[in-house]
């Protein structure tokens, strides 16, 4: 992979659009198409953006916003922004060092990382790469003892919580990858015939709660109020609204579109996180106003890493922070905790939805 040394200053990357353009230049076709694509018709990918763009702001004025605080709470720790580096399988195909590079960027800027179990260099080596705030996400590829082993290893290596991703009972047909012949590194070595993930049920969630009461459990892939309610009933600490970035079920709703019903169903009994198409600071602010505690970022950190490695990721987060701060100030609030649903309203999208519709000035 060609990732040239780039001086990641404000002059080199004055906007997030410049980051996207650099990543597109640097990444080979296979990893690039994997990064931007989704499943089958990619309708869910577009709906993620369409749903975000269907939210408009209701700003308040004549408020002293000379000091704006963008920081947030994450599992009891203070972080610089209410965002999480979402788990990305095969990140090593995007950035040299894979998850270790993401960990270093996470630590340098001051936001948490969620490590995917199908991302190299693995649980232990990623933990050694940086002193960051981290949680672990598992795709179930074995029996209960296999899961328990991963829980122990995660605890031993300083991961603060444990996540089960539950929207992968079937592996989707990601046609960009199939057409281009791109195979993610972990898929090339995945055991054939494993049905542990497709057999996952609430029974395993209850078992996890009883076996590991001291480990905060995150369920990622929730898309309905019904399942959010079952999460709370089964002792889940974080209900993570996600459609896998449009990579699993095609023709799903955008994540932010289902966020309000999940927040209502949870009713403060657990935290609610969300990911799916979030690319700009305004996107993050919209999610927080709708009740999300943390916003997962998937493609955006990958673009930063693809643009210029760890410094590129840090610069991407700096730009995002600037956008969040400007948005909060123009809304007339000085902290994320002041946001409410009264700061937003429904509106017709102004742009055609797409994975990069948040960057209308990209060159063709």
Structure description:
By secondary structure, this protein is of the alpha/beta class. It has one domain: Aldolase class I (TIM Barrel). Helices cover 40% and strands 13% of the residues. The longest helix is centred in the C-terminal third of the chain and has 33 residues, at 299-331. It is globular and about 55 Å long. The model is unreliable at 1-6 (pLDDT under 50).
What does the main sheet amount to?
8 strands, parallel
Radius of gyration: 19 Å
The low-pLDDT segments are 1-6
List SSEs in N-to-C order: HHHEEEEHEHEHEHHHEHEHEHEHE
Structural class of the helices, strands and pairings?
Answer: alpha/beta
Mean pLDDT: 93
Instruction: Give the tally of β-strands.
Output: 12
Tell me the fraction of residues in β-strands, as a range: 5-15%
Shape: globular
Looking at this structure, what is the CATH superfamily? Aldolase class I
Give the N-to-C terminal Cα separation.
22 Å
Strands side by side in the biggest sheet: 4-11-10-9-8-7-6-5
Overall number of structural domains: 1
CATH architecture grouping: Alpha-Beta Barrel
Helix percent reads: 25-40%
| CATH topology-level name | TIM Barrel
Q: What is the number of helices?
A: 13
State the CATH class: Alpha Beta
Compact summary:
This protein has 364 residues and is α/β, with parallel strands linked by helices. The chain has 13 helices and twelve strands.
